[in-house]
Amino acid sequence: GDSVTQMEGPVTLSEEAFLTINCTYTATGYPSLFWYVQYPGEGLQLLLKATKADDKGSNKGFEATYRKETTSFHLEKGSVQVSDSAVYFCALLNAGGTSYGKLTFGQGTILTVHP
Amino acid sequence: GAVVSQHPSRVICKSGTSVKIECRSLDFQATTMFWYRQFPKQSLMLMATSNEGSKATYEQGVEKDKFLINHASLTLSTLTVTSAHPEDSSFYICSITGYADTQYFGPGTRLTVL
């Protein structure tokens, strides 16, 4: 079945540092890929997405490129802020068959940014 | 994107009682809604898919008699935790599939069973 693997956390950075959170996936067909962010005590918010190979999703300074050859969707940000502290989830959506609409999540990566 | 609300945001109940959690799609007609459970510092676990006008589809290992789901309209799905016990304490999150196959999540409901 489909699966998503994220780099283990937690990740602790100083403000303005470069961020990479690795995400790789296993799926049949052509899934869409997502990054969601969860702030403390809240639900998930869509951060960015990519629906086909070589697409780059971007939002709020975060970027991720859908790499089919390496089955990866790594999240990057050039300069993190304290307000970026949250849990980040990589996810895929396989639109085919009985899995329609079901997201498969990675385990989440806790990011803490210090001033 | 679509806006999803949940009510209540927090609930504390005694063991053995039932608790109802509402999930509303405020600006999108959702024929399908999803219910997730999240334990502290863990990922989301899909519990069931709620289908408007028909029975919910439960994931393996989820007790359908304990977690009752009703999806009576295109904008409302409810999850009732029956005879709740402390092990049911968790963060429950719903979502809908909105525009361009993107899922939009509610803010979650924190259930604490004493």
Q: Hey, which two chains have the biggest interface? A: A-B, 22 and 24 residues
Largest sheet geometry of chain B: 7 strands, mixed
Please work out how many helical segments of chain A DSSP would assign.
0
Instruction: Give the N-terminus to C-terminus distance of chain B in angstroms.
Output: 37 Å
For the termini of chain A, the CA-CA separation is: 41 Å
Radius of gyration of chain A: 14 Å
What is the CA-based Rg of chain B, rounded? 13 Å
Characteristics of this structure?
heterodimer, A: 115 residues, mainly beta, 6-stranded mixed β-sheet, 4-stranded antiparallel β-sheet, 12 strands, 0% helix, B: 114 residues, 54% strand, globular
List the helices and strands and how they pair.
The complex is a heterodimer of chains A (115) and B (114).
Chain A: E1 3-6, E2 11-14, E3 19-21, E4 23-26, E5 32-38, E6 44-50, E7 56-59, E8 62-65, E9 75-77, E10 86-93, E11 103-105, E12 109-114
Parallel strand pairs in A: 2-12
Antiparallel strand pairs in A: 1-4, 3-9, 5-6, 5-10, 7-8, 8-9, 10-11, 10-12
Chain B: E1 4-7, E2 10-13, E3 19-25, E4 32-38, E5 44-51, E6 57-58, E7 67-73, E8 76-81, E9 90-97, E10 103-105, E11 109-113
Parallel strand pairs in B: 2-11
Antiparallel strand pairs in B: 1-3, 3-8, 4-5, 4-9, 5-6, 7-8, 9-10, 9-11
